[in-house]
Predict the 3D structure of the following.
Amino acid sequence: MKFERYGIGIAKGMALTFKHLFRSPITVQYPEQKLIVSRRIRGNELVWFLDRCTGCATCAKACPQGNIEIVTHVGTENNYVVDKFEVDCGRCMFCGLCVEACPYNALAMGRSYERSQYRRSDFVLSKEQLQLSDIRQPSGYARPLVEAKLPRQSLLINSKQKDGGQKLSWLGLSKKRGRGV
Amino acid sequence: MTLLESFRLFLLNMNWPDWAAYLVAGLVGIIIVLAFVVVLVIVFIWVERRLLGRFQIRLGPNRLGPEGIFQPLATAAKILMKEDIVPAKADKIIHWLAPVIVFVPVLLIFAVVPIGQGAILSDLNVGIVYVVAVSAVSAVGIYAAGWASNNKYAMIAAFRTVAQMVSYELPVVLAIIGVVLMAGSLSMTQIVESQTIPYIILQPLGFVIFFLGTIAEMNRSPFDLLEADSEIVAGYHIEYSGMKFAMFYLGEYGHALAYACIVTTLFLSGWQGPWLPPILWFIIKVFLVFGTIVWMRATLPRLRVDQLMGFAWKGLLPMAIINLFIIAAEVLWLPQINLWILVAINIAAAGVLILLWSRLFTLGGGRVEV
């Protein structure tokens, strides 16, 4: 006699849903909470290295949209000095042809995925904005040398934060609300 | 004497004319009960959405106000501002009347819900019969809505509703009679006062039958066949929008609140409880009942139509009759016995009956392995 068919089955199901009450939710409340993203994703941005760039403008020629504007003058040590390096990210489709074209690895795809702006003019990035910074880091995507230096990480949603895991909380979030990021 | 009657006597002592005291006391009572209903219904909508979210490991609405408490108000405002669409070939008068017929009986039920000692709008001596009679009217409203919409989905939902509500009325009423026999009264106040041990312990089978029956009567999951989205889109209110849809929506939650109140009154000993004030005990119990309803909604899948009818006629109705016989025999032959012996007898009887009747609903009487 299997008691699953005599009401125990329903009781088991009810117990299972009751346990769900005490699990942390899988909802990510995006502007306040963010999941940790892999450092190896191909993000929606470019990172430009000033010291490696020779001003050859291969990237500008490779760009199918003509987004990259580069202005140079001849320097003292038989080199080009880059005066202006501007990328119009508003028209960029992140095809990565400029990254592939660069003979000196002076361009790389970044990791970030948050690219929205309030004004169209904010999309035109100057050479200061394009350089390496805390928020603008090269990803390991298709760059084995960069990738080898990146730490290994786990993206699982669990409580072990030292492995790069992440735990989402559900209480007390309403206090943070409205402040933005 | 209820609090309202004492208020009326107080007004008469203040040399108010008879009619004015009657009118003012009645109006005050109605306003208090309406406020109670509206506030609790809004809280219920919020509780259901948040609790269902937690059952499904989601968050539920938590943006508007602290922990999303104002979300139901925003939803209501949104619904009220929508265009009121009436189908061209609808039966316009009935289409307009149906939401009212659904909503008003729900409000009428609260006239006999005892919130505390004497805190009742009208302590009818046939209170529970009144509840059964009034709540059955909602079926007419839903049928009218399905008919007047001139839509086949709405019509199917209306057919289903009438079949379901009429079928489940029987076991519900039989379970109520068990309570009435033990309490010795039809008045809601006296039913509560007679519960030294809550009837959920004294009549567990009656509680199960009544609870499942009421969930079917208020058309909630797992018995929400009339709103089965996967089969008949939105059921009887498919052609409704704006204010009329809001009436159905409020009526649905009002129904849930009304039945939670009645389950509390009949089986959970109403306002009685230690330490806390009676009104608080009542609300706590109502929310426990509603939480269980949401819990069932989060767990159990919807029944098929034939399973639904089979469950009413082959499952609940015979069990309700046997339960009624057991209770009647106990009341007749063992009136002076210690209540805890009755508790043991009834729990054993409930276990045996549920086991026996489950065999009906297994494949091939339990002989077929799945």
Residues 84 and 98 of chain B are 14 Å apart (CA to CA). Chain B has a mean pLDDT of 85. The longest helix of chain B spans residues 18-55.
